[in-house]
């Protein structure tokens, strides 16, 4: 059993939109009130203070809480409790990634609330979802939601551009994809998004750069508006829609190419990269790194391989994939210079920097996974990219080195 969520677009009417905004405000009030109570209590009683996450006394204090779902308020209290738990683990060093102390929530920033499975119902044939205290809301379901899956929870959210969504979390069984007997190594970059060990190069579509002129023009208009005015808020929503468009294009592209790779190969080996470590002093380079979405690309490959019964390996980031000759294994430290794109080894082999790195990543990934040595043979060309029929202008023609 795996946990999988589906994003559903909501189309509330005017009265339902008012109730949704009230619910967002109430759960934000619950979070801020409990956090303020815990901070002041700890400052007063120190170690003798016991953290409070119960919302019962808040319902008696604020009468308008009765207008919204009680389950949403309780879930927000549990969220704060979990945040405190993760913070304590971070302080004690029991958590891999460190997090800061819980902060107060602001209006208009990531507004959302969650309901358990007893408080909502899906009507897929009628394109409706029933939410407690809201009623039946019109929506658009994705076509791939199975009928026999177990519903866990739903998270209602509002984006900065004014759209409403419901993220339905389910538990279900996913059938593994058929085995192909093929393996691939992937070198991830900025200019070329991916260079595969079989010679295929996938160009970086650079969606942010394509829309940069439009974003710049709207930002200039926004800077001339009076902050807080109606025209300022209208222009701000327009800017948010542009950024959301870029995000949607990038997400659509990554989902298609990762699914195609998982369908085509049984073993996928990539190098571990850190976006923060790749940043430099030039702003243009940093924006290109963020536009590539390296973390999201590897994250999608990892969980899709896990879902569909394929193998995924992350090669250590200190592995000198570009410096090693894939034929004889000799290391050439002069290749640290990124300007060197092609080089010849002392054994006579001629290498393209990224293509050679992808071959070495495949070898090392296979070695890490099985402890065996893999003699690379040219071949295994992707033939399942017919799955991606709508790439069109978003990706250049695949080229063979």
Q: What general form does the structure show?
A: elongated
When the domains are counted, the total is: 2
Round the mean pLDDT to the nearest integer and report it.
84
Main sheet specs: 7 strands, antiparallel
N to C succession of SSEs: EHHHEEEEEEEEEHHHEHHHEEEHE
Strand order of the largest sheet: 2-6-7-1-5-4-3
| Count of distinct strands | 15
State the distance separating the first and last CA atoms.
41 Å
The fraction of residues in strands falls at 15-25%
Number of helices: 10
Structural class: alpha+beta
Flag low-confidence runs.
376-401
Give structural attributes.
six-stranded mixed beta sheet; 2 domains; 10 helices; 401 residues; alpha+beta; 39% helix; seven-stranded antiparallel beta sheet
């Amino acid at each position: 059993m795996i946990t999988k969520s589906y994003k559903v677009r909501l189309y509330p009417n005017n009265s339902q939109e008012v109730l949704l905004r009230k619910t967002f405000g109430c759960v934000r009030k619950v979070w801020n009130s409990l956090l303020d109570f815990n901070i002041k209590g700890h400052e007063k009683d120190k170690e003798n203070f016991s953290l409070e996450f119960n919302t019962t006394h808040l319902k008696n204090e604020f009468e308008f809480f009765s207008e919204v779902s009680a389950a949403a308020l309780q879930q927000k209290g549990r969220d704060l409790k979990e945040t405190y738990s993760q913070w304590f683990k971070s302080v004690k060093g029991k958590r891999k990634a460190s997090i800061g102390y819980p902060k107060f929530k602001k209006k208009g920033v990531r507004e959302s609330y969650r309901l358990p499975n007893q408080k909502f119902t899906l009507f897929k044939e009628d394109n409706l979802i029933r939410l407690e205290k809201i009623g039946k809301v019109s929506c658009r379901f994705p076509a791939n939601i199975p009928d026999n899956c177990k519903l866990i929870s739903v998270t209602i959210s509002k984006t900065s551009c004014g759209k409403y969504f419901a993220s339905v979390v389910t538990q279900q069984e996913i059938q593994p994809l058929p085995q192909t007997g093929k393996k691939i190594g992937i070198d991830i970059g900025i200019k070329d998004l991916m260079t595969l060990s079989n010679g295929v190069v996938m160009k970086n579509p650079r969606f942010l750069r394509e829309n940069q002129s439009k974003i710049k023009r709207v930002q200039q208009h926004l800077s001339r508006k009076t902050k807080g005015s109606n025209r300022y808020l209208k222009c701000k929503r327009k800017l948010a829609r542009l950024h959301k468009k870029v995000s949607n294009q990038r997400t659509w592209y990554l989902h298609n190419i990762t699914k195609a790779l998982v369908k085509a190969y049984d073993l996928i080996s990539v190098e571990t990269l850190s976006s923060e470590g790749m940043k430099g002093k030039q702003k243009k380079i940093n924006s290109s790194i963020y536009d590539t979405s390296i973390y999201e690309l590897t994250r999608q490959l990892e969980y899709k391989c896990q879902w569909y019964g394929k193998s995924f390996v992350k090669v250590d980031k200190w592995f000198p994939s570009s410096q090693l000759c894939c034929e004889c294994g000799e290391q050439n430290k002069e290749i640290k210079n990124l300007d060197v794109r092609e080089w010849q080894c002392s054994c006579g082999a001629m290498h393209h920097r990224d293509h050679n790195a992808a071959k070495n990543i495949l070898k090392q990934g296979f070695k890490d996974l099985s402890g065996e040595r893999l003699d690379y043979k040219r071949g295994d060309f992707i033939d399942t990219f017919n799955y991606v029929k709508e790439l069109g202008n978003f990706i250049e023609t695949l080229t063979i080195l």
